[in-house]
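ok trying this again, last paste got cut off
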Amino acid sequence: MTVDFHTHIFPDKIAFRTIEKLEKIANVKAFTDGREESLIASMNEAEVDLSVVLPVVTRPEQFDTINNFAVWLNEKYQGKKKRLLSFGGIHPDTLDYKRELRVIKDLGLIGIKLHPDYQNTYMDDIKYMRILDYASELGLISVIHAGVDIGFPNHVRCTPERIRRVIDEVAPEKMVLAHYGSFGLWEETEALLAGENVYFDTAYTFGFIEDETFLRILKRHGADKILFATDSPWSGQKESLAHLKNLAISAEDLDKITGQNAIRLLSKCAAAY
């Protein structure tokens, strides 16, 4: 089973204009138009079985709308051969983070996505630390945008140094650092984060990181804590899988990275995997 642990879609009525806006901000071209249907088509072409969808709450008042959409999506794909699984979202400026995290848990959502740049909050802010701590207590997976965001290249809110401070003070469980630990900051990632009790996903990594650096971090961090991911629609699923499979990685480790690790992590939160 092949799992893409980091994808994005948008409701059809806003998908086109959202992708167009984000393309202009980051000066990149998306691989799909951001619609649910397009992600399924990409999965069929790449032979991906499950894509984890990660919504970002950019304003506290979006909480209900985004999480209700996540629930609807999960119910729609429950038991299907090609499956989408949406996490929930929460904003650090919420007035009651414990209540909102309990709501996410009660809705059956098994994880959250945090994005320091789009949420205008530093990774080691107490607001994030409290969310990560309580999310761990509830058994939720936390996926964090880590490193440079190409739309905000001059102001990095989630650096390896800040992440390391969170690890040392909170020791969050089931935390996934997107973009292979910290996009564009892989030297610091290797020095400060590799080997820690966190997962790295490979979203939007290939084509930006040197293969030699990727393999060196893999060796130091361990294949058991790497999750295949693309950041679709910003990377192609078929292309990313092909790049990964062309690296000097053993078949055993490839199986872990492309699916086994993800299934094991998801299974800790729900029995359906």
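PB: full thing came through this time. The radius of gyration is 17 Å.
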